[in-house]
Amino acid sequence: MARRRTTEAETDDLPRYFVWVRGLEGPEPQKWMAMDFGVGDWKRPLVLAYLELPEGERHLSLSVLARHYPPPRMDTL
Predict the structure, then answer these.
(1) Which residue range is the domain that position 45 belongs to?
(2) Sequence-distant (≥ 6) Cβ neighbours of residue 57 within 8 angstroms
C-alpha cells in the first residue's frame, strides 16, 4: 500500500495530546485536540498524565500510543 504524504492542514486536524484519564476500571487512554479542562477545571482531577504528541505520531491509534506510552502506576497516585 502506497503511503501518502500528510499535508500541514491534515496534521492540524489531528489530536495533539495523548492523555491518560482515571476510568472506572483503571487508567484509560484518550486523544485530545487541546488541553482545555472545561468550565471550572472539572476534568483536571481525572487527568493522570498527558503528553503533547510529535507531529509524526498524531495519526497513530490509541492502542499503539498506549503501548508506546504506558499508563502511570496507580499505586503512586
Answers:
(1) 8-76
(2) 65, 68
Inform me whether the pLDDT recorded for 67 exceeds 90.
yes
Query: What total number of domains does the chain contain?
Result: 1
Q: What value does the mean pLDDT of the chain take?
A: 82
Burial of 51: CB neighbours in 10 Å, binned 0-12, 13-18, 19+: middle
pTM of the model: 0.74
Task: Kindly state whether residue 3 falls inside one of the protein's structural domains.
Answer: no
Does residue 29 lie within any of the structural domains? yes
Residues 6+ apart with CB under 8 A from 21: 27, 28, 30, 43, 46, 47, 48
In a domain, 46, yes or no: yes
